[in-house]
Amino acid sequence: xxxxxxxxxxxxxxxxxxxxxxxxxxxxxxxxxxxxxxxxxxxxxxxxxxxxxxxxxxxxxxxxxxxxxxxxxxxxxxxxxxxxxxxxxxxxxxxxxxxxxxxxxxxxxxxxxxxxxxxxxx
Length: 122
Hints:
By secondary structure, the chain is mainly alpha-helical. It folds into two domains: about 1-40, no CATH class; about 45-120, no CATH class. The chain has helices spanning about 5-20, 20-30, 45-55, 65-75, 80-95, 100-120. Helix 4 (about 65-75) crosses helix 5 and helix 5 (about 80-95) crosses helix 6. The longest helix is centred in the last third of the chain and has 23 residues, at about 100-120. The radius of gyration is 22 Å and the shape is elongated.
């Protein structure tokens, strides 16, 4: 965390002391020095899409946002629950950098290319 001014440090201490013992315990477990009570909340996807439309650079904060973006751009008349579950799983796995989902993605890209090449031959 960035170095705080004495004024910010006092405000941080006051916020901490005003918390319930349970909340204080959770912060102490992670480390009081690492705790940033002034951190801005994550922005919802709708706001990010507006920023992107204005030409501003936007980053996704989670695989779930990737999932939401996919469905906002790919509107199909009927999704099965398994389809939605599959999209959510792979979006979260890819976002987290898990090899299993990277393998699925790489295979899907290869298969699409291979299929197009073999359709042209027929």
